[in-house]
Amino acid sequence: xKEVEQNSGPLSVPExxxxxxxxxxxxxxxxxxFWYRQYSGKSPELIMFIYSNGDKEDGRFTAQLNxxxxxxxxxxxxxxxxxxxxxxxxxIIIFYGNNRLAFGKGNQVVVIP
Amino acid sequence: xxQVTQNPRYLITVTGKKLTVTCSQNMNHxxxxxxxxxxxxxxxxIYYSMNVEVTDKGDVPxxxxxxxxxxxxxxxxxxxxxxxxxxxxxxxxxxxxxLGTEAFFGQGTRLTVV
Lengths: 113, 114
Fold this sequence. Notes:
The complex is a heterodimer. By secondary structure, chain A is mainly β. In chain A, about 0% of the residues lie in helices and about 60% in strands. Chain A starts with a strand and ends with a strand. Chain B is about 0% helix and about 50% strand. Chain B has no helices and 11 strands. Chain B has strands at about 5, 10-15, 20-25, 30-40, 40-50, 55, 65, 75-80, 85-95, 105, 110-114. Chain B is globular. The interface between A and B is medium-sized, with 23 and 26 residues.
């Protein structure tokens, strides 16, 4: 099983709708989870970090973490064309007392005006 | 300004000609890593370093070397580049051992090996 999995294909949403992205992870000991946004040809930028179970909201973005089921999701409300990008889920994997950041393959989001 | 700087941004080279991509960070971060990104494959870790003189292989280390002689620099070395190493490369740094700290990425290096 891959450390971080994002299995959904490209997601097309109309402007103003909610985009929903999911990510599962394999290491039960993981405690820190990130969502990065990456525009084509650019470097990833952090948009959300979540540490504890439940929801975390930041503007139009909400991250949801369920440790029991080992998944983390990202909701983008009132989607805008500027949200069109690839969204990468990342998880800190802890091994032998050290931390390593593992990424999923990413989900492309296309917001249609 | 806190940043991770990669050079060069773009590079076209020929098969077998050794090259180095530099990475430097000014945030005193212990942890640095190199990724390559290819369509459909996402970010794959090449090598990472927990601290000076401590490096380890990531998911796709074959054909690459790294060194960490000082904290701020983490160069990526391709001793004999091949066309399958054509990719977009990112360097990243973060504080070590601190849960919930983000990785800061460089601007990326687009490498083409012909």
